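To assess whether ligand presence alters the predicted conformation, the chain was also submitted together with zinc ion. Input:
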Amino acid sequence: MYQQVFEEDWSAVVERLHQEKIKHVMLPNIDMNSIDPMMRLVNEDSNLFKPMMGLHPCDVKSDFASVLDQMEPLIQSYKCCGIGETGIDLYWDKTTLDIQKEALIIQIEWAKKYKLPLIIHARESFHEILPLIEKHHDQNLRGIFHCFTGSQQIAEQILKLETFMMGIGGVISYPKTNLKETLKQIPLSHIVLETDAPFLPPVPHRGKRNESSYIPLIGAHLVDVYGGTLEEIAITTSQNAMRIFELS
Ligand SMILES: [Zn+2]
């Protein structure tokens, strides 16, 4: 939401957040350059916009260790409410797998040290990420597999971790997805809603810019899976998000 594509009509974007009763917008960081634009929003309204700190797997370069050294003190000074985005992405670049893993392990350790949720980006990489999470898992590690689109078997492995949730975004509205079938095996207590704005907009906004006020469009698809009303889905998934981010 801090990206340039929102600059032109920013006040209308914020107005739609309020219209849809969005209380908090969680902002993941991706690299050193995204910190300032993210913090500009936080400084605009620190109750609405909540920062996180992390190095996105697609931005892990050979200098990752010094980048992470610069980021770590900001976790506390900027009152970050999560560690991320981190993870492993083997769709865009497989050659950096080793350093992506190293950067992820450092960020897992941050999540444990600062008792913050880990926001995991997993693209074609569940088989690399899950063993790392399992190895480093302890009572202080919790988090979200963001934009979850994995198989039923992967979902089961995540559920076994107990302290991890799955983030469901616009993909659930796409006609070709099997996600609704997979979700039937996942209790709603392990689901949070997300947009990944400006990416992956839900139908009917596909191909355009995504924004956080589209969350109810995603929630409506969970009604198909879990039954109940959109209001009930909204209450439960909001409570899940508040719990994992320790917000009130
Ligand atoms: Zn991501």
